[in-house]
Amino acid sequence: MGIVDDGLNRAVQQAFTRPIPKSAGAQMRYLVKQLKGTRAVAQQLGVSQRTVERYVKDQIRRPRADLAQRLQDAVRERWQPRIRERARRQAATTTGLVIDTRARFGFTAAPGTTDDARIRHLTLALPPQHAARLFDAQDAGASEQQLRTLAGEALGEVYFRDGGRRAHDLEVEFTDVEHLEFDL
Q1: What is the 3-class SS of 10-29, one letter each residue?
Q2: Is 79 in contact with 11 (CB distance < 8 Å)?
Q3: Which residue of 12, 106, 116, 182 shows the fewest CB atoms closer than 10 Å?
Q4: CB-based contact 45:172 (threshold 8 Å)
Q5: Rounded distance between C-alpha atoms, residue 117 and residue 120, angstroms
Q6: d(CA 59, CA 72)
Q7: Longest Cα separation, the chain
Q8: Helix (H) / strand (E) containing 41
Q9: What does pTM read for this prediction?
Q10: CA neighbours closer than 13 Å in the CB half-sphere of residue 46
Q11: 158: nearest Cα among 140, 137, 131
């Protein structure tokens, strides 16, 4: 996962109505129910089936740090799928996304002009069509670079080209991302 992919996932998770289970046993029981068995959970997490059974029975309470992270990520990935889908659909059709980023933006321009790449901090509302493109690309398994390109195109369209009203054509390069957050 990359910075854009993680940002999109965090934005959708803000719509959750209930927090994910806190304890390792509750998280493991949730995964066993979702994946319909301890064997599937064990394969997903890279542990033995017996280890999963011991977590389910609360015989083990504190997982290793790496297992705890994999367990939490697996639960978060499956948590409240209908609410997740509704939030994504709403962003892609009506509300769009708010993007807050601090990144280096560069343009195709003559060397030494004011269009040289520099760090900018932008907070912009992206229209629904850009949100839909980002979510569709994420669902299709787009790479981090492809997601950055789509985000750069969206920022270029909304901010640098003023929604298409400016006459000159700019090539926006979205690199060196220091900070990126999406909000629904």
Answers
A1: HHHHCCCCCCCCCCHHHHHH
A2: no
A3: 116
A4: no
A5: 9
A6: 19
A7: 67
A8: helix 38-45
A9: 0.72
A10: 9
A11: 131
Tokens 């901010």 belong to residue: 159
Whole-angstrom distance, CA of residue 163 vs CA of residue 160:
8
**Rounded distance between C-alpha atoms, residue 23 and residue 176, angstroms:** 37
Count Cβ neighbours within 10 Å for each residue of 69-105 and write b for 16 or more, e otherwise.
Answer: ebbbebbbeebbeeebeebbeebbeebbbbbebebeb
pLDDT at residue 177, rounded to an integer: 65
* CA angle, 145 then 46 then 84, to 5°: 50
Q: Which residues of the chain have pLDDT under 50?
A: 167-168
Is 3 within 8 Å of 180 (Cβ atoms)?
yes
